[in-house]
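Dear support,

Our group has been running a series of protein-ligand predictions, and this particular one with adenosine-5'-diphosphate is the one our PI (initials K.S.) wants archived with full inputs and outputs. We had some confusion internally about which version of the output was final, so please treat the block below as the authoritative record. The input we submitted was:
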Amino acid sequence: MLDAFFTPQSVAVVGAAREPGKLGYGVLHNILEYGYQGKVYPINPKADEILGLKCYPRVVDVPDPVDLVVIVVPNKFVPQVMEECGQKGVKGAIIISAGFREAGMDGIKLEQQVLEVAARHGIRVIGPNCLGVISTHTPLNASFAAGMPPQGGIAFMSQSGALCTAILDWALSQGIGFSHFVSLGNKADVNEVDLLQAWDNDEHARVIIVYMEGLNDGRKFIRVAREVTQHTPVIAVKSGNTAAGSRAVSSHTGSLAGSERAYEAAFRQTGVLRADSIEHLFDYSVAFSYQPPLKGRNVAIVTNAGGPGIMATDALERSGLKLATLQPETVAVLREGLPATANVFNPIDVIGDALADRYAHALKAALEDSNVNGVIVILTPQVYTQIEETAQVVGRLAGAQDKPVVACFMGEQKVGPGIKILNEHSIPNYLFPERAVGALKAMADFWEQRQRPHPEYKRFEVDQERVRTIFERVRSEGRLSLGDAESRDIMEAYGLRIPRSILAKDVEEAVAAADSIGYPVVLKIASPDILHKSDIGGVRVNVRDADQVRDLFDLLVYRAQRHMPEAQIWGVLVQEMVSKGKETIIGVNRDPQFGPLLMFGLGGIYVEVLKDVTFRIAPVSGQEAVEMVQEIRSYHLLRGVRGERPSDLEAITDTILRVSQMVNDFPEIVEMDINPLMVYEAGRGAVAVDMRFVLEEKESEG
Ligand code: ADP
Ligand code: MG
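Confirmed final output from the archive:
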C-alpha cells in the first residue's frame, strides 16, 4: 500500500543542495550515509553533480523510473514539482517543505492545490511540513533527522516533528531499535489510519506507537484500530485539546463530555493502549518490541533486596496484576538451591550477597512454573553483586523460553554495563520497579483485549417512524430542543418506561390531571427554554391534594417568569410520583471527531458535582454496556451495600443499549440526557423520569 515510502526501488531528492547545512543536502546525505541500496537521483537545475551523483534538472529528466520523491523546494514550487512527478509515474512524495496549512490562508490553498495534483496522478503524500521518513530494515533514511536509529521492532509515527527528533535522540542514546519512523507533518494525505494499516501488515513492526494531537477521521480510526490491535499492539500518546466545536452545550452530558473523554473512550474501545507520558510510551514500547507476549496477569519477582521487592509487589497489586502463587515443586527447588535465609515464596529474595548463579537458579525455577506468566528481575548493586554476569544469565535464560522477562537493575553508574548487556539480549530495563510493573501491565492489557470476544450489537424492535415524525414537527416549528411530551414519546418509541404525565395549561387542567393520575403527584414547570427545572425551583415532588396543586401551579409559573422573563411557558407538567430508586444518568453528546459519545453515571441533581460518569462511543456492544455500569465509582452502591438489595443492573444496560441504538439511528440528536433514570431493585426495572433532547442545527446529511 505505502510500499513506495518504505521500500522504494529508487528515490529522487527534489531540491538537493550542494551546501552542507541546507535541508536539501541533509536529506540526500542521509539517504546515502545510512546505506540505501536503490538508485538515488538528486534533482537541481543548477548543479551537475552532488555528493558524487549525477544531477538532473527536473524529475522528468531522470532516464529510469522513480518510485519515491523527497521534496525540499520552497512551497510555491511544490505544485509544479508534483505535476512533473505525476508525469514521471512517481508513487509516493514526502514533502518536507513548510509553508502550507500551518501558515495561513495562502498555505491552505497551496496545500489543496498539491492534493489535487496528487489525487489526479495517484501519488500518495506524506507531509507537507514534516521531517521525513525512516525505514531501518530497507534501509532508507529519507529525512533530515540527525542520525539513524538501530534496526528493531518499534514503528513510530508522530504529528510533531520536534518529538520525532527527541525520540530519535533517545533511541540513539539507549540503543533502542526501530523499524519505521514517520513524521506526519500536516497529514494532508497519509495519516495515522493509513500507517496503522500498512504497519499491521509489516513483519518488522512489532509495536506501533503514535503521537497524536488530533485525528482527521475519528470513526475510521476506530474501525481500523480495532482491527489492528487484534494483532499488533498500538500505543498512543495524545496531547493538545482539539476544539470540541463552538456549539453551546445545554445537557448534563454535554457539560461533562469533551474531546478528551472522547479520545479516552475511543482508545479503550479499540484496544489502543494509552501512555500518559513520553516516559510511559518508551517503557511500554520497549517491552512490546523486545519481549514475547505476557499471557496472563501472574508475575514472579526475583530480587536481591527486600525493599524494591515490596515496592514491586505493591505496584503489581495497585495495577491489577497479581503476584503469582508458586507451585510447591517450584518452592522446593528454590529451597534446595538458595540459602536458608532466602525467601522462597514470591517475591523470591535471593539475598544481598547473591551471585549470578543464585539469580540463575531462581529465574529458571520461576520461568518453569506454569503459574507464572512473566518475571521481573530486580538487582541492586551490592558489594559482591556480579552485575554483568547476572545480566548475561538473565539474557540467556529469558531468550530460551517464551515468557516475558523485564529487568530492574537499579542505579546508574555501577549497573550501566549490566544494562548494556541486557539491551543486547533484548531485555528491557527499568530504573524503578513501578515502571517495570507499568510495562507488564500494558502487556497484560493488550493480551486481554485480544482475547475478548468480538463485540455484539443488539438490535431492539423500536418505532423509528414515530421518532422521525416528532423530529420533523419540531424542526418545522423552528425549534431545536424538544418539549417534555415529545421527549417522552421518543422514550416510548424506543421501549423505555416513563411515568404518566399530563401537560396542564391552567390550574383547573392541573387539578383534573392530578385527579386522574392519583396523588401524590409531581409538578414541574413546562418550558422548552428551561433546561434545569430544579435550579429555578421549578419542580415540586410529593404534592398531596388539589389545594396544593392550585397553590403550586401559580408559584411555579411565577418563579419561571421571574427567573427567565423571556422563557416560553407551556404550563405545568403533572406527573405520577414514582417511588424512590437509585438515580442514574444516561446521556449522549455528539463529538465532532467520533460522533455520539455516550455517558453513564450516577445521576440526579448533583451529577456535575460528583462527576461519577464514564463514556463510550456509540454504538456500544452488550459487553461495553456492562463495563460502563461496572466502571463508575458508585458501582458498589448499585450492587447494594449493607444488606441492601442490588439494583436492576440489567435494566440499566438495556437502557444504555436502547439509547445507543437511538442515537445511531438518528444522527441529528446532538445532545440528550435521561436524568434521572430511576433504577429499582433487581427485577423491578428502571423509569426514565426526566429527559431532554437537542437536535442539530441543520439537517444532517446521510
Ligand atoms: P430537572 O433535572 O430539570 O431539575 P427533574 O425532572 O429531573 O428536573 O427533577 C429533579 C428531581 O426531582 C429528580 O432528580 C428526582 O429526584 C425528582 N423527581 C422528578 N420527577 C419525579 C417523579 N416523577 N417521581 C419522583 N421523583 C421525581
Ligand atoms: Mg433532571
